[in-house]
């Protein structure tokens, strides 16, 4: 049976080869579900939306706001932002993108109880309207923060949450997610991208070595890419994070274990142990959890940790962490769940410890999602009476208010990063791509800026 399955895999993958010169062949580790600009929220869904949709602004490879659907914007004295829209942006049915489409998207994200928690948090407390064809939005958040966060809110056509205006048109095939080049203001230079569902890392490696995938992530262990591919390393604001619903006691144990739990060969180029509470890549100095003078309550000897099943790299890391816990007399029980089930458990707060990879936006405001009452990463209900006053004083990164806020979090954190991650991928040598702090897809121009060297 094993040989038969291997043969079927080879037959399936060989179907990728004939179109390789025109289409960029990629893979997805899990099914992202239907394209939905209102409800879609997984990392795979974000990739799909970045190809098929446009937000008001984009983020360039350095993380700065650049025009996308909006040709310009102005911050008013009262903190409101007004956006002037492009007149050449079109949805896939040919309809122009209007201010009413932007307003409908914002309204649906706030109205729909199943809307993306990330996007709904971005728009929390915001007021939006249309004035003389321009979009007007005001938020309790500082306008500089809101502007950057709006890059994560692609606009859908009114009454059509599956329809965007992006540089590629989405076509769902029986065994693939295909995106075809459109006439678009970013002027994409590749014909398209086709994603296959390949959850097995060994199958991805085989497809890369055979040249059947133009882009793919190899295993963490050191491997030489085939002659057809080159290595691209992307430093990213990404961490493997553990949340605790049982107080900071378990996190203090994890803080100690992360220092020496992982053999260097296991981490490879992909990761290094985290040193603080918030990403150093966002400008935060390493800071430890503050221990109470009498010492924290000793956690139970058995700790249950939920994580997304099927991610081999993460599973191997957690196995190493479990072995380190045993040296201190703790039984770290690892409980794999399908992604949708884990997300549901997180939303309901039904866990003791839970682990997931977090990709932060390239600005310090991103960490507030841990602390804000309705923040998408505040899955434990964390709160502190001093938070609101400190958050109101936040300005640019590195200021005194940021340091005070991190000190507040350090006294009773609800989450701890275990590893700082970076993206190591193999890319076909004929394909020019644009790496950035958000990866290959989520920035602007993203995949629209790629091209084949023939």
Automatic annotation (TrEMBL):
Cell membrane is among the record's keywords: no
Record InterPro entries: SBP_5 (IPR039424), SBP_5_dom (IPR000914)
Solute-binding protein family domain ranges (all copies): 66-220
Domain of life: Bacteria
Keyword vocabulary terms for this entry: Signal, Transport
One Pfam family cited in the UniProt record for this chain: SBP_bac_5
Family: Belongs to the bacterial solute-binding protein 5 family.
Protein name: Solute-binding protein family 5 domain-containing protein
Lineage: Bacteria, Pseudomonadati, Acidobacteriota, Holophagae, Holophagales
């Amino acid at each position: 049976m094993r040989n038969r399955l291997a043969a079927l895999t080879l037959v399936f993958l060989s179907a990728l080869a004939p179109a390789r010169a025109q289409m960029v062949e990629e893979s997805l580790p899990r099914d992202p579900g239907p394209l939905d600009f209102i409800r879609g929220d997984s990392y795979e869904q974000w990739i799909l939306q970045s190809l098929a949709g446009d937000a008001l602004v984009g983020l360039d490879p350095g993380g700065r706001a650049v025009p996308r659907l909006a040709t310009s914007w102005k911050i008013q004295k009262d903190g409101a932002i007004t956006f002037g829209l492009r007149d050449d942006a079109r949805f896939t049915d040919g309809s122009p993108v209007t201010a009413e489409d932007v307003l409908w998207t914002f309204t649906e994200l706030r109205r729909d109880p199943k809307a993306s928690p990330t996007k709904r948090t971005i728009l929390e407390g915001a007021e939006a309207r249309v004035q003389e064809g321009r979009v007007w939005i005001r938020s309790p958040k500082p306008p500089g923060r809101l502007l950057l966060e709006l890059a994560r809110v692609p606009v859908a056509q009114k009454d059509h949450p599956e329809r965007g205006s992006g540089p590629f048109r989405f076509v769902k095939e029986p065994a693939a997610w295909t995106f075809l080049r459109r006439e678009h203001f970013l002027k994409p230079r590749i014909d398209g991208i086709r994603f296959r569902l390949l959850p097995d890392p060994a199958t991805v490696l085989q497809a890369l070595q055979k040249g059947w995938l133009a882009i793919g992530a190899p295993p963490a262990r050191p491997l030489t890419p085939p002659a057809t591919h080159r290595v691209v390393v992307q430093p990213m604001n990404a961490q493997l994070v553990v949340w605790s619903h049982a107080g900071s006691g378990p996190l203090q144990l994890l803080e100690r274990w992360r220092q020496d739990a992982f053999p260097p060969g296991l981490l490879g180029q992909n990761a290094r142990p985290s040193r603080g509470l918030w990403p150093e890549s966002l400008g935060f100095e390493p800071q430890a959890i503050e221990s109470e003078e009498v010492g924290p309550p000793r956690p139970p000897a058995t700790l249950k940790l939920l994580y997304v099943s099927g991610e081999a790299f993460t599973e191997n890391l957690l196995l190493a962490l479990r072995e380190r816990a045993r040296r201190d007399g703790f039984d770290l029980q690892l409980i794999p769940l399908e992604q949708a089930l884990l997300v549901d458990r997180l939303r309901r707060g039904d866990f003791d410890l839970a682990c997931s990879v977090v990709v932060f936006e390239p600005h310090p405001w991103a960490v507030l999602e841990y602390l804000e009452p309705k923040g998408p990463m505040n899955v434990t209900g964390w709160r502190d009476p001093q938070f609101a006053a400190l958050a109101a004083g936040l300005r640019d990164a590195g200021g005194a208010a940021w340091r005070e806020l991190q000190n507040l979090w350090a006294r009773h954190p609800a989450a701890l990063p275990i590893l700082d991650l970076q993206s190591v991928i193999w890319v076909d040598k004929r394909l020019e791509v644009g790496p950035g702090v958000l990866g290959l897809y989520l920035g602007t121009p993203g995949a629209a800026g790629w091209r084949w060297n023939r």
